[in-house]
């Protein structure tokens, strides 16, 4: 009986050992020219909240190193040398991940071995020519600007913009073709943040992603922002808000709407383009205020002193509010404001007529609403 129990215990122990050994692991193997034996290689995790943590570290031998561990959540990690500015993007997946190159030359970095790293390296390889050309044009542009060669500057700027447009076309095709790539999410998120795509197109690409990508923590945040953007689409009625005014009172949007239109102007004292646009916005306000235009400035400042000083210096005559919480304030968050200056125009009932406009777009929108 005792022998039977002993055999059973041994069998269970063996099964547990096998189970433990089959836990998915990543193995990162690197060969980097220029490493010293006293260097330290760190695996850095930049979390969705932008905080950083060190997952592991190792000392290389003759430029080579190897690190293994339990697979972390799917996102981009970084191979860092001595906490310096040497950061090599990498994905830690089940299997052997490889990193090669010259530590002093980012153009030589190569990652591979697993699907996400191969997807990433494909993108780098296919855009390398574009990026080299852009860098060369940027150098020529600086030289032409310093020599005040205006015709050459204009020509180089056009070349630069054309190349940037070509990269954007490639990136859109990459997102379409690589629906199981985390980099596709990163590219789509950047396009969304920079308003390079209509929200309908962002949602279409997002829905085409594999479940593995859509279920990541970062992608879930993009899904939430897509839904939020749809709620503030043109034609939707904005949700009412209340916010502090400069004198310590409270302004309620529904009680402040213009008889024809209300322009909600997102700005800040520290935003130079915003301050530069204020004189012209004052002209527009003077032109249309008697026809039913109300302007509400929503400041993304953090300092009340700086906010009030800017209002006084720029002599802004319209309504002003601010939670003094930068881009994290409830109004900026609700309207999904990602850059300033930016304006939203609603009608007398709070229905969105225009969104995320600035500069000459504001002139065109008001002209369309009020006429000459």
Give a topology summary:
Blueprint: H1 2-21, E1 25-33, E2 41-46, E3 52-58, E4 64-70, E5 77-81, E6 87-90, E7 95-102, E8 105-112, H2 115-146, H3 150-177, H4 182-193, H5 199-208, H6 211-214, H7 217-231, E9 242-244, E10 250-252, E11 261-267, H8 272-288, E12 293-299, H9 304-314, E13 319-321, H10 330-334, E14 342-347, E15 352-357, H11 360-370
Parallel strand pairs: 1-7, 11-12, 12-13
Antiparallel strand pairs: 1-4, 2-3, 2-5, 5-6, 7-8, 9-10, 11-14, 14-15
Could you please describe the fold and organization of this structure?
There is one protein chain. With 372 residues, this protein is of the alpha+beta class. The protein is built from 11 helices and 15 strands. The protein has a 5-stranded mixed β-sheet, with helices on one face. The radius of gyration is 27 Å and the shape is elongated. It starts with a helix and ends with a helix.
